[in-house]
Design goal:
With 303 residues, this protein is an alpha/beta fold. Helix content is 29%, strand content 30%. The chain has ten helices and 16 strands. β2, α1 and β3 form a beta-alpha-beta unit. It is elongated and about 70 Å long. The two termini are 37 Å apart.
């Protein structure tokens, strides 16, 4: 059971008992983050404490750096982030905005307010964590916090450190398979089904046209193997992202051909899980050539 509590100030924190407090932003809850929460959970069991997390609704970059639209994007939508935190063992999730007040706090001031109010006996942070306007490191926390500080080392694979930065880059490049491996589960995107031009139906490949519901990263233009969740049922399919260049389309489209499915689902909220990339978007010389390629894509997507 996870309790999510939006807070404006430290006074909104209402922790009933002592905690193992995890600190960080945690965009994605990837395998490295999951290791951190695993360690926090073990400490909580040993000390008979609960696991709490103080984190932010949006990236601190919005407050600390000159604005760019990418700063508003997330790897996971808020609901999926909360579900993954619940599975990771977080019992109390304190969510707040990273305001100028918070940004201007020193590490000691943050500890004396938010950490104190969360009744932390142990703090768990990643090796690269930093805190406060004075940018104190994870090791520095041991000097300013009157309790145990546990620093979790990097989790690595054959390519190096697993990080949110790597995952974002994988998504942007269309390597959704690697993004899913680093996340420990396929990357999800939520959309609502809307009316399109119904051209796919005329060539034997009807699609559900989707409008993205969240401020989340989308894979690079291309064709992908996906699973799509509709009314709690999972179907295999193939998705395309980008302009329909064969028909001289100018708009960016997000659509899914759902295998073995023939229902009207306009207005439904669905979740697409990205499994692997099939190919780039290509302009074909004829409809027949496009259909032939789609038949080949389907064989790949069906596995």
């Amino acid at each position: 059971m996870i309790v999510t509590i939006p807070i404006k100030t430290e006074k909104d924190i209402a922790t009933p008992g002592p905690t193992v407090l995890v600190l960080g932003y945690f965009d994605g809850i990837h395998l490295g983050h999951q290791k951190l929460f695993e360690i926090a959970g073990k400490i909580a069991i040993e000390k008979n404490l609960s696991v709490a997390l103080v984190t932010f609704n949006e990236s601190p970059k919005l407050t600390l750096h000159q604005y760019s639209p990418e700063q508003l994007l997330h790897i996971l939508n808020p609901d999926e982030r909360e579900r993954k935190l619940k599975r990771a063992g977080v019992e109390a999730l304190y969510l707040m905005d990273f305001t100028s007040r918070v940004a201007n706090m020193t590490a000691q001031e943050f500890v004396d307010t938010f950490v104190k109010e969360a009744k932390a006996e142990t703090i768990v942070v990643g090796f690269d964590y930093s805190l406060g306007s004075d940018r104190k490191s994870a090791e520095d926390l041991k000097e300013i916090f009157d309790g145990e500080v546990v620093i979790v080392p990097a989790v690595e694979d054959e390519k190096g450190k697993i990080s949110s930065t790597r995952i974002r880059q994988s998504i942007i490049e269309g390597d959704v398979k690697e993004a899913g491996q680093l996340l420990g589960a396929p990357l999800p995107s939520r959309g609502v089904v809307v009316h399109g031009n119904a051209r796919g139906r005329t060539i034997g490949y009807p699609t559900a046209n989707l409008v993205l519901l969240d401020r989340t990263y989308m894979p690079a233009d291309g064709v992908y193997t996906v699973e799509i969740e509709i009314q709690r049922k999972i179907y295999r399919g193939m998705a395309s992202v980008g302009k329909n260049v064969t028909f001289d389309g100018e708009e960016e489209r997000f659509e899914v051909n759902i295998f073995d499915f023939d229902e009207n689902i306009y207005g439904e909220r669905v979740t697409v899980y990205w499994l692997d990339r099939i190919r780039d978007m290509v302009k074909f010389e004829s409809v027949d050539e496009l259909v032939h390629q789609l038949e080949h894509d389907e064989k790949i997507a069906r596995g």
